[in-house]
Amino acid sequence: MALIDRFFARAVKRGQLTVIHADGTQQSFGEADPALKPVTIRFGAGATRRILRDPSLGAAEAFMDGNIDIVEGEILDLLILFASNNRWEDDNSVLMPGTLKTVMDKLAFRIGRINMQRRSKKNVAHHYDLSGKLYDLFLDTDRQYSCAYFSDAGISLEQAQLDKKAHIVAKLAIGPGMKVLDIGCGWGGMALYIHEKTGAEVLGVTLSEEQLKVARQRALDAGVADKVKFELIDYRNLTGQFDRIVSVGMFEHVGTPHYRTFFRKVRELLTPEGVMLLHTIGRAGAPGVTDAFTLKYIFPGGYIPALSEIAKGYEGLRYFMTDVEVLRLHYAKTLKHWYERTVASRDAIVGLYDERFYRMWCFYLAGCYVSFEYGGLVNYQLQFSRSRDALPLTRDYMFDGERELREPHKVTLRQAG
């Protein structure tokens, strides 16, 4: 049995995988399982060698180049097959890299993850300055490019993203007359929502020129450009005082060497009664490294932190950690929507870029999906306050505020104030 066949035999026990090698030989692995779709793949010449040399990056690039062809099923089915057989919590995954590969990956990652200020803008542009047409094809209408909040499992992506904004704004307890800072504001959806619902003045900052253009135009179109402003600026260069600070989906780009800089800067920007909410992808386990595929093709300079690493950033800075919430499967549901919309838009995406880009994007979203559904990724919402009594005594205010924000026929908080 070929070396790669021995790997498949160990990795796939439930569900059925059929492999057609480049020489035409065929081998099947696992047992049929009604919960898992059967998958058949065909290897082109050299595919096996690429995978054995570097399993993560090699498999991704072989798929992107068409060197791995999925005859039955699709890339999501293949990754589900592997991931469901090797769940994070079972601690016996055969997908983990060997000792030497782990050491080399950590060394390379340690060298590369020093996210200096001059490199941050370039890293952000690599991903977020892609064509706006691409994001319109797979995101919701508000272009919320972060974990949605599924208040009910069956709601639409649009509703789940709306509920995410309500969930966050309710936690922040934003009142009339407050000044709010949105660090990593994306295309402006959160900032515009905050002003609409609370009347607060909002400053959104980004390092993406494309996002800045869209966000500013949206504020102009809504007639609120004097109340909701957007700037192209690194958070480290900000000045002023804010009653509330929110950061959604940006912390993954900060880099562990700069966590303390981030939290020190946020504390400096908060008023004495200020509150901050951090919404970030996180690791359920110990610190790790970013996989080679993601670093090379998706998020150069990106890193998903363990909770212990985040804690090292704020400990000793005289913050109060006032709330912690772990959203586990919400991001899996979000990514499933994004993947399905990507597949449905195949022709349009190929037209924008090419077949290789389309395959890369599918691999990226499918890989992220299984990492949340079966792997060790979660989403953290962490709330901090400079004051011990800036927020109500119990969490009831969050639930009450969220219900009001999600009720379309009720008056907004701005009107109520």
| Gap between N and C termini | 72 Å
Q: Mind telling me which CATH architecture of the largest domain this is? A: 3-Layer(aba) Sandwich
- The number of strands is 11
Q: Over all CA atoms, what is the radius of gyration?
A: 22 Å
* Widest beta sheet: strand line-up: 7-6-5-8-9-11-10
Fraction of residues in helix: 40-55%
Instruction: Tell me the domain tally.
Output: 2
- By CATH, the topology of the largest domain is Rossmann fold
- Work out the strand percent: 15-25%
Largest sheet: 7 strands, mixed
Say which CATH homologous superfamily of the largest domain is assigned: Vaccinia Virus protein VP39
Assign an overall shape: elongated
What is the C-level CATH assignment of the largest domain?
Alpha Beta
Summarize the structure.
The protein is α/β, with parallel strands linked by helices and 417 residues long. The protein contains 18 helices and 11 strands.
Provide a descriptive summary of the structure in words.
The protein is α/β, with parallel strands linked by helices and 417 residues long. It has two domains: 3-96, 2-Layer Sandwich (Nonspecific Lipid-transfer Protein, Chain A); 117-416, Rossmann fold. It is built from 18 helices and eleven strands. It has helices at 3-11, 47-53, 55-64, 75-85, 99-112, 117-128, 132-138, 157-172, 189-198, 209-221, 259-269, 292-298, 307-314, 330-344, 346-352, 355-373, 396-406, 413-416; strands at residues 17-20, 26-29, 39-43, 68-72, 179-183, 201-206, 228-232, 242-248, 270-283, 320-327, 377-385. The strands form two sheets. A seven-stranded mixed β-sheet has the order 7-6-5-8-9-11-10. Strands 2-1-3-4 form a four-stranded mixed β-sheet. α9 (189-198) links the parallel β5 (179-183) and β6. It is elongated and about 70 Å long. The protein starts with a helix and ends with a helix. Mean pLDDT is 90; it is low at 96-101, 103-109 and 409-417.
